[in-house]
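Take a careful look at the sequence and tokenised backbone pasted below. I need to know what the token row says about the fold.
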Amino acid sequence: MAGRASVMPPIFFLALIVSVGFVSFAEERALYMVLMEGDPVAFHGGSRISSREDGRRLDPNSEVFKAHAKRLVDSHDQLLQSALETRSYSKLYSFKHIVNGFAVHTTPSQAEKLKAAAGVKLVERDRGAKLMTTYTPEFLGLPQGAWTHDGGDDRSAGEGIVIGFVDSGINPTHPSFAYDPLHPFTGNISHFLGSCETGPRFPASSCNGKIVSAKFFSAGAEAAATLNSTVDFLSPFDAVGHGSHVASTAAGNAGVPVVVNGYYYGEASGMAPRARIAVYKAVYPTVGTLTDVVSAIDQAILDGVDILTLSVGPDEPPEDTVTFLSAYDIAMLSARRAGVFVVQATGNQGPGISSVVSYSPWAVGVASSGTDRTYPGSILLGNGTKIEGVGLSGPTFGYGLLLHKLVLAKDAVKADGTFPRTPPYVEECQYSEALDHNVVLDSIVICTFSEGFYNGTSTLTAIINTAKGLGFMGFILVANPAYGDFIAEPIPFVVPGILVPNLTNSQVILQYYEQETHKEEKGFATRFAAKAAIGEGRVASFMGQAPVVSRFSSRGPDFVNTSRTPCDVLKPDILAPGHQIWAAWSPVSASEPALTGYNFALQSGTSMATPHVAGIAALVKQYNPSWTPSMIASAISTTATKYDTNGELIMAEGSGIGSTYPSSHFDFGAGLVSPSGALDPGLVLPTGYEDYISFLCSLPEISPAAVRNATGEPCNNTLDHPANLNLPSITLSALRGSQIVRRIFNNVGSKPETYVCSAVSPNGTIIDLCPAWFRIAPEGIQELHIQVKVTQAMDDFTFGEIVLTGSLNHIVRIPVSVFPVSISK
């Protein structure tokens, strides 16, 4: 999936040619995997329902399938014979069951010829077995970084750490959670006291050593709604898929093949594949309540989890209290107090400002980004125009050689008038009975993203069912001029299908169709001359700018009440991959019918970003077992990067499709998480439970009585200013004149180190640092005084940073966010 062919520089070729005489002997052979256009055996006749009335798929063991397999092998041999020099290659074997292609042992120059050959989609050099987890371990540098730190690898990453997941449960039979008796766990988790509950689809054997505890919490759900016994299982079993996805992203086993609809997408791994999993089911397909969530958090703390992962939570701030004092946030504060690292999704309400649902400084709020991996799909029209789209499906039969009849759903509607003339029937392909079977059979049908999709009554599942039932060759879901662009995410389709969310591209398709379709005076289509083919959409592309903050990812600034009064805490805290993440799923898929039957799903959300940070925190905790949660949070923050893979400032997606803007700390927090950097940050900023209480007591919006009511703690100490909470960031939400902020650093390195202090002042301010440099011994403490002075009033927040550069190559970054209100106090 991530492999790129490696070619030696031309000058090296020249040197070898001179000494040896010819390139064939000069070049070193390598293994290459080649993917071809055309259906493999598993999809031949199976990517669409046959025209038989009983609706059964064609038998893979039939003579038809065997003949197709032979044709594939013959085509591979013919391609090699025609494209490559004799004796320059050895074909190892043909891929014909789940992908169409072959493996070949040849030289780089011969591989280049394969790339140019007709019918070849991808030529990838085999770089050895490696993890791709949803690709994110590779993207974050884990295989060559954090996993190899101190001589380890994926087979030890996370040993001895228990990660708790408050979510929708877990699918215990998934290979991501299997126990390998040949590779027993060696890490000591005697501190963990969890146990297992059983119930429907969750026998006692589900707790197998990888899953070390599993409980469910349903009192709130049962009180709030009538549960559906067919999906709302009163057991830790995950009927949704979300909990399994989150758990496998953080701590799923290494090297698990991701196969969906017979297609191999790579291998999956969690960030900390040897960490143990503790399950606390608190959300059900029918309903989820904070009552159950808070109860689950409480149990997780009692059991002794090291990391608490919260990809669930309220969508809105509390109505009758400040954000920091809700039961949910106080439960997280209690977890911090117990020494548990808490990581929380910031929400999916972006890109609007102050849309975060992670408020408190004692929980690490995670924003979402994409990676440089995409799944480009395309449509080829009969006039040669190629249109881009989205859809994880195989190509239409004979792609590259055959085009198929193109039919607009409106023009295939039955004329008998026995059904409503509403968009779901006539435009959106929701009801097979509305369409003329003879017209749509073996055709590519254009469905329209109309009213039903906007009000939530129409689904892609219904389109797929219609396509299978009527024998579509494929389908295209196009944007509607009446509504404009829509947002589309790749979903695996069992029939060739593609989404075209861009209105301009949709209109190109529709205009071509109208030009080629003959209609009578009343507008009824009489002849369909438009042709099209849907291309392969399952092959990943690795290019482009990355990371980019996801459109849906909630933004700061953080706020303290329902009036959204900004407060002096940075949110989000950190950025991690959360867009188009492959991970484990539940075949029940009660909330997403389109994914029913799948063991893996490609999902997006800050829910998907959060377990990345949870798994990385487990690696940090494993390597530094004595560190407190605030030290781990500090290490993750101060070593993050604000630059993308091109060395440019990370961009953020805006409200318009395709629109981006230079991001700020309110988009990505401290920046993209860096696992290797977090293991060895040089300095950390420690913060204790008492400091959080002092912070609460210093907020003008909160009375001492309210703090005591919520936490049980008196306000015996306050901070000079809320911004003096010792966080790895500085936020001043209303700066008048100047303010001195203090930060205390602890040297967690093994040697003395000298640090030089510098600052990039936010617009409208100037920052002075004292001292300008310091030398700090191992385990030493250093206080830094930071004076932020307004030089010009601004009408919004501005952003900068403090950078401490160490003599042993440690770099500590502190993001600074300031709203300069006035020059004078």
